[in-house]
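Chain A, query sequence.
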Amino acid sequence: MHIASLAARVVVAGAAVWFALATAYAANPVVGPSFRRYILSVDGIFFWQRILFGLAGPAVLSYLTWETAKIRSTQSATGILYVDFFSVVVGEVLAKYIVLATHVPV
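Chain A, predicted structure.
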């Protein structure tokens, strides 16, 4: 269930980023701030943290949880799942900040 929801989050975030990059100030990128400038600026650190802690980290940790549970090491799988939960929460908080800062639902 976690892996399926993670895949859905990756698809939705990827589509939102693609749409923001394709449409935001497409006619004249020099006028005003754009999402492309945001992710390549110092403020874009929050975007990259969202990608790391909210999408890539949980992907790796969910795979580790799955493999650890398959070898019936349930205590280790539970510990990895706790870290995974924390990274998802941090990633979602960062996503909400990005929505407030850029109006792009990453």
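The chain has a mean pLDDT of 87. The helical segments are 2-23, 35-40, 45-70, 74-102.
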